[in-house]
Design brief:
Distance between the termini: 57 Å
Structural class: alpha/beta
Strand order of the largest sheet: 1-2-10-7-8-9
Mean pLDDT: 95
Number of helices: 13
C-alpha cells in the first residue's frame, strides 16, 4: 500500500488498541430460576453502539480494497447508528462524511453524526436512501460504503476478536458456558451472519434466533426464500428491520426467526430500565422480548441454560421518542398489553 492507506490502517489499529472489550451483563429473573440472561453491552464503544464494530470493519475493508482514498468523501445510507460510527472513523482519518438518512431519524443521532464532523443528507423515506447515496458518491467522486452489501463479508467471522469470539470468551467461566440461544435482531444482517457462521465454525451447540420488528421483510424471506420481497412501510424500531431483503442478510446461518410486535419492543424498554438502572434503545427491547419468549419455552420444557442477547445502543438517543408516552401512543399505539405480559412472566 502507498503511504496514506498504510497510515490510515495503522490509525484504525491504534484506535482499536486503545479500546477495551464490551461488558457482558448477567441478568437473573425470579420467573426463570434455571435460566440466566446475558446482555452484551455494545453501547460502551466510543461511538456508542454495536455499529462501531461494523464501521471499523467496513473502513478496513474499503482501505485494503483500495476503495477509500485520501481526501475523498465517504457516503453511507443509514438510519443513524452506523452513520454515527462511520462519522467517528471518517473524522479519525480526516475524511469528509455524508450520511443519507430518512427525515424521521432520531434527533440525537443526527446531533451525534454532526458532532463527529459528518453531514446529514435527508430523504423522505427509507426506501430512497440507497439510490441517493449512490448518486452522491458519483457526483462527489466519493466512496459509497454500502453497509447493506458488505456487512456480512467485511468482518472476519472465524474470530479475530469479533463479537461472537468475545461472547464465548466471556462466557467461559459461567454456569452454562455454552448458551442455549443467542438472540439478535437484524438491520444489515452482518452481525447475525457473523454469529451464525462462528457458531457453526466452532461446532458450538448454541442456536441462533433472529428477531424481526414489524414492517420488515427478513422473517418472511426466512420462511419463503423470495429475495424480491419488499414492504411499503418503514420499520418503527430504529436501526433494525428493512423494507427489502439486504444482500448481507444470510438466512442459512439462522436456526429460527420471530417477529416481535413493535409495542412489545417498546414495553420491554421500560421493563428493562429499573433492572439495568439505565435506558436502552429500541432494538435491545426487541432482542430482550425474543429472549424472554425463548426462556418461557425452555421453562415449559424443564430446560436450564443461558440466553445471550445484545444491548445494541443506549436509550439517550431516543429520549424524545421511545421514552415519551405521547410519542409512543401516537406512533406505536397502546403498549399496555405487552406491559401486562411482562409483569406476569
Amino acid at each position: 500500500m502507498s503511504s496514506w492507506p498504510a497510515q490510515a490502517v495503522n490509525e484504525i489499529a491504534c484506535d482499536f488498541q486503545r479500546s477495551a472489550d464490551t461488558h457482558l451483563i448477567r441478568l437473573t429473573l425470579p420467573a426463570f430460576p434455571d435460566i440466566i440472561f446475558y446482555l452484551k453491552d455494545e453501547s460502551t464503544h466510543p461511538s456508542g453502539s454495536l455499529k462501531h464494530r461494523l464501521a471499523r470493519s467496513l473502513f478496513l475493508y474499503g482501505l485494503c480494497n483500495g476503495w477509500i482514498q485520501q481526501d475523498k468523501p465517504i457516503i453511507e445510507a443509514s438510519s443513524g447508528s452506523t452513520a454515527v460510527s462511520e462519522a467517528y472513523f471518517a473524522r479519525l482519518l480526516g475524511l469528509p462524511f455524508i450520511a443519507v438518512m430518512p427525515e424521521c431519524t432520531a434527533r440525537r443521532k443526527i446531533e451525534q453524526i454532526e458532532h463527529h464532523g459528518g453531514r446529514c443528507h435527508f430523504v423522505s423515506h427509507g426506501g430512497l436512501i440507497y439510490d441517493e447515496a449512490k448518486r452522491l458518491a458519483r457526483e462527489l467522486n466519493g466512496h459509497y460504503m454500502d453497509q447493506f452489501t458488505y456487512a456480512e463479508r467485511a468482518t472476519d467471522w472465524r474470530g479475530n476478536n469479533n463479537i461472537a469470539e468475545s461472547i464465548w470468551r466471556q462466557m467461559a467461566r459461567e454456569p452454562f458456558p455454552q448458551p442455549s440461544w443467542v438472540v439478535m435482531s437484524a438491520s444489515t444482517g452482518g452481525t447475525s451472519a457473523t454469529l451464525g457462521r462462528y457458531i457453526r465454525y466452532q461446532g458450538h451447540p448454541t442456536r441462533l434466533m433472529v428477531v424481526d420488528p414489524e414492517n420488515s421483510v427478513f422473517h418472511a424471506f426466512f420462511r419463503q426464500g423470495d429475495p424480491n420481497l419488499t414492504h411499503n412501510r418503514p420499520s418503527r424500531i430504529e436501526g433494525i428491520g428493512r423494507p427489502r431483503v439486504e444482500p448481507s442478510f444470510i438466512s442459512g446461518v439462522i436456526d429460527e426467526m420471530m417477529t416481535v410486535p413493535d409495542g412489545a419492543s417498546i414495553a420491554t424498554l421500560g421493563w428493562l430500565e429499573p433492572l439495568l438502572g439505565r435506558r436502552v434503545g429500541g432494538s435491545t427491547g426487541t432482542n430482550m422480548w425474543g429472549a424472554l419468549q425463548l426462556a418461557k419455552r425452555m421453562r415449559a420444557a424443564g430446560e436450564a441454560g443461558a440466553i445471550v442477547t445484545l444491548l445494541c445502543d443506549g436509550g439517550e438517543r431516543y429520549s424524545d421518542t421511545y421514552y415519551q408516552p405521547a410519542w409512543v401512543k401516537e406512533h406505536i399505539g397502546d403498549i399496555r398489553p405487552w406491559q401486562s405480559a411482562l409483569e406476569n412472566l
